[in-house]
Specification:
By secondary structure, the protein is an alpha+beta fold. The chain is built from seven helices and 25 strands. It has four domains: about 120 residues, no CATH class; about 90 residues, Ubiquitin-like (UB roll) (Roll), CATH 3.10.20; about 70 residues; about 200 residues, membrane protein fhac: a member of the omp85/tpsb transporter family (Porin, Beta Barrel), CATH 2.40.160.50. A hairpin with a 2-residue loop joins strand 23 and strand 24. Belongs to the SAM50/omp85 family. This is Mitochondrial protein. Keywords: Membrane, Transmembrane, Transmembrane beta strand. It is a multi-pass membrane protein.
């Protein structure tokens, strides 16, 4: 059978060698020392009916077979060491006739043995070449042809059967999950919510569609994807080209409890998280979180999140929260916040959109004995009712030492909806960006450029005074504009920072490996930071306020070390403020920063 034939299934041919030494009883002569010596040979029949061949004076012992090494087999199979077998007559070896009556049985035995080994090696080497042909020629060609033919075979995936059926997931929700993969998309459904590729028409496309299905189910976080089982069967009662997918889904445990520590934003703390998955059978998640820390004295939150349209790309969340934060390090007070949020999130190809409504009550209390007059005047409760939209696009391949991608984040908030206090009425815009690249192609030195801009425009009458303290922006600290204390930029009243309505910050950082320790997560770090915080002057125009914001910025430089402890980053820097203002709180010298977001 031709191993390259395309009308046969792919096979691996195993070549076996079975060589039997069985000389026949014939007479002949051999040339020994230039004379013809007759070789009398007689045939003896054994009891079993077989024949033994022996010489008249001495029997010939069986030859010792020495098989070739494995390396020679593969060299031959790969065509690196071709072996040409010796010519063969197809008949057993028989010594030539010799007329000399003087015979040497030892030489005759040696001749028999040498010829036997030569013939045996020839047959074995022929078998080696056969194995080489099977491995190097027949197998790839036939297999690739067969696989290609099967992959392009017309097939239709017409149904998906669950075996076993998940216990807690609603049948209607499961039907919404799986139907896009076996039926055309609904015209009323937005295209970005359709997870399935075009309707498959052959085996190759069905396998790609199955891969998309598994990835789609994994996004919900309620199934154990390591235990998913998939097989295909002919459609019962269907056409020959119809197949059915049998899907075995194993649900994760519904209850989840975790306790841990958290470090970031210049503080540390502990937290406990409890979660119930698939609460109502439609991938809903009920989660509760409680934490305490060095600055956030206590924080509690309960949230319920559910996917919309049976898609992980569209979700709705309701949450209630309570927060007690200690701001005495820079503003001599503690801020207590209680409220609720409703958020609609959509993950689109061009970024993530979050539309949020928030109703929150703020209280300023626990003033320190040395609190300034300004802080005491601003220590009044307030309520904010607002709606905001956030667009985030993050395409970075690395948070800090990336070679491609960028981060863009825009938040716009309108406060002043029914329920807001008289001065909790404003429009606020926040822009954040970050870009990192290698210094040149293949370089291990990276630079990062980050920016943050906040603008708050008061919408309440000017005679009411300034904005509430919780609505203002603060800059400065090891995670912000380095070289200043936390909240150290901008207006101050004694020991307290008063923050501002308009602010910007810009940072350039350079990271380089330690010489001869390029693989270490510890990197050398150098930076230049700049920024400014000002209040919005209602007596001036918008253009004058922007000019004031960007004129004469604060500036600092420094060097240090950066350690990557995924997912956080730790910095130890020596900072030097270069340009500042009288009264601002600088922080010259060594400083430690811990967190995820840095300028």
């Amino acid at each position: 059978m031709d191993p390259n034939a395309e009308d046969r299934p792919p096979t691996i041919e195993v070549v076996e060698i079975d060589v039997e030494a069985k000389p026949q009883p014939v007479s002949g002569t051999a040339v020994i020392d230039g004379q013809n010596v007759p070789l009398p040979i007689r045939e003896e029949e054994t009891a079993g009916g077989s024949h033994n061949v022996s010489t008249e004076n001495q029997s010939i012992p069986p030859p010792v077979f020495q098989p070739p090494m494995a390396s020679s087999i593969f060299r031959t199979a790969l065509g690196q060491d071709p072996i040409t077998p010796p010519p063969s007559t197809g008949k057993p070896f028989l010594p030539n006739e010799h007329n000399d009556s003087n015979d040497d049985p030892e030489k005759i035995r040696q001749l028999h043995e040498e010829e036997f080994q030569r013939r045996l090696r020839g047959e074995y080497e022929q078998a080696q070449r056969r194995v080489g042909e099977v491995v190097s020629s027949s197998f790839p060609a036939s297999m690739l042809a067969c696989v290609s033919e099967n992959m392009n075979r017309p097939l239709r995936l017409t149904s998906i059967r669950l075996s076993p059926v998940p216990k807690t997931t609603r049948p209607g929700f499961l039907n919404s999950l799986l139907s896009p993969f076996i039926s055309p998309p609904s015209p009323s459904r937005p295209s970005f919510l359709n997870p399935a590729p075009p309707t498959p028409t052959n085996l190759h496309e069905i396998l790609l569609s199955t891969k998309s299905l598994v990835a789609y189910l994994n996004e919900f976080g309620i199934y154990d994807m390591d235990r998913v089982g998939i097989r295909f069967e002919p459609k019962r009662g269907g056409d020959p080209d119809e197949i059915e997918m049998v899907l075995a889904l194993r649900e994760k445990g519904r209850l989840f409890l975790k306790a841990g520590t958290e470090v970031g934003g210049g503080e540390g703390g502990g937290n406990v998280t409890a979660r119930i998955r698939n609460l109502l059978g439609g991938a809903e998640t009920l989660e509760g979180n409680a934490s305490i820390g060095t600055k956030t004295k206590s924080a509690y939150q309960v949230s319920l999140t559910t996917p919309l349209s049976a898609s992980p790309l569209l979700s709705f969340a309701l949450s209630g929260f309570s927060l007690d934060r200690d701001n005495s390090a820079f503003a001599s007070h503690r801020e207590r916040t209680q409220g609720a949020r409703a958020k609609l999130s959509a993950i689109l190809p061009w970024g993530t959109h979050d539309l949020q409504y928030e109703l929150v009550n703020r209280a300023i209390d626990h003033l320190t004995p040395d609190a300034s007059v300004s802080i005491r005047e601003l220590a009044i409760p307030s309520t904010k009712s607002s709606i905001s939209h956030t667009w985030t696009s993050d395409t970075r391949d690395d948070l800090w030492t990336g070679t491609k991608g960028r981060l863009l984040k825009f938040t716009h908030e309108y406060a002043g909806l029914p329920g807001s206090s008289e001065k909790a009425k404003f429009f606020k815009s926040t822009t954040m960006s970050q870009l990192s690249r290698a210094l040149y192609s293949g370089s291990q030195i990276h630079y990062s450029i980050s920016s943050l801009t906040t603008m708050l425009f008061p919408l309440f009458p000017s005679h009411l005074g300034s904005t509430y303290l919780p609505d203002r922006t603060y800059l400065g600290g090891p995670n912000s504009v380095r070289g200043w204390a936390v909240g150290g930029l901008g207006r101050r009243d004694g020991p307290d920072s008063l923050g501002g309505d308009l602010s910007w910050a810009l940072g350039l950082s350079v990271f380089a490996p330690i010489p001869k320790k390029e693989h270490w997560p510890l990197k050398l770090h150098g930076f230049i930071n700049g920024g400014k915080v000002v209040a919005y002057d209602r007596a001036r125009s918008f253009a004058d306020n922007v000019t004031k914001l960007y004129r004469s910025p604060n500036l600092s430089v420094g060097v240090g070390l950066m350690y990557r402890l995924e997912p956080i980053r730790i910095e130890l820097n020596f900072s030097m403020p270069l340009i500042g203002r009288k009264g601002e709180r600088t922080s010259r010298g060594l400083g430690v920063g811990v967190g995820i977001e840095f300028l």
